[in-house]
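re: ur msg from earlier - yeah i can do the N,N,N-trimethyl-histidine complex, just paste it... oh wait u already did. ok heres what im feeding in:
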Amino acid sequence: MATSAKILSGPVTQFGSDVRAGLCGTGPKELPSKYLYDQLGSALFEVITLLPEYGLTRADERLLRRHAKEIARLVPGPVLVSELGSGSGRKTRWILSALCQREPVSYYPIEISRAALALCESELGDVGCAGIVGVEREYLDGLREVAALRPDGVRLLVLFLGSTIGNFDSGADARFLSEVRGVLAPGDSLLLGADLVQPVERMLQAYDDPLGVTAAFNLNLLGRINRELDGAFDLRQFEHVARFNQATCSIEMHLRSKRRQVVPVRRCGFAATFAAGETVWTESSHKYTRREIAKLAVSCGFRPEAQWVDQEWPFAENLLLAV
Ligand code: AVJ
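and the outut:
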């Protein structure tokens, strides 16, 4: 390569090595969806939650608002609340305020995105009786740290909202929930939000909106590689693709190369080659059935205590008790 003299291998970050692994092999290219959420990506996701075609987040919030009191009643105190992925904190407000009616609550959002943690802390700062401690870690590492802080006699309530569980590959959702269960003690609980199957056209619209916000959210991953790893992606040479994978019952997002191109990622010291039409898989969003969630929970050491489903958008909130 002519430019090889300019290529420097900087410090290898996890992001850098994941990007290299995802773009360099001979098989299908992929990038982990967790990297969609830098500051710009988190802001774009917030806009997605406002799209008429994307009802998921609003359904999640409606359920939490409507059933917060009941949820609080089903989770006897005192509790320490931790959340896997803080999101903006808007949905969590309802649960925290309901629990706070009873006694002061400590809240530990766990998030690898510092931008998301900051949003959440400012959003929830005024929920008077909740002490907020952001934990900048991968989910399980963070949860282990939080569990170690639990005072005697205090139960853990873990929130895993927004159907982030759907982003794990099939099988990986169960492995992840089992690991979460392994950190918990009997009597602790997990509040799990999961998006449900609906007609394919409606699911596709939610991930390929006419305003192009989801396309921007997806393409921003290449922009992030440019910014953080000194990549040379021309975002106009890629397009957003959303498709439904029948076999895994998930909506997949891909980025498709419009032409053959070779793209240096200078900080990682490699260049990725794309054939015309080649795709990079960036996210899977599995859609569940109600029974599937209950079965999954049981197989991972939880007892389903309650399930609430939204009337307008098929989304299920599940209260699971660690047994
Ligand atoms: C926040 C992971 C639940 O999978 O629906 C939204 C992310 N991706 N539009 C989802 C997302 C494209 C979202 N989750």
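cool cool. Confidence is low (pLDDT under 50) at residues 1-10. ping me if u need the other ligands too
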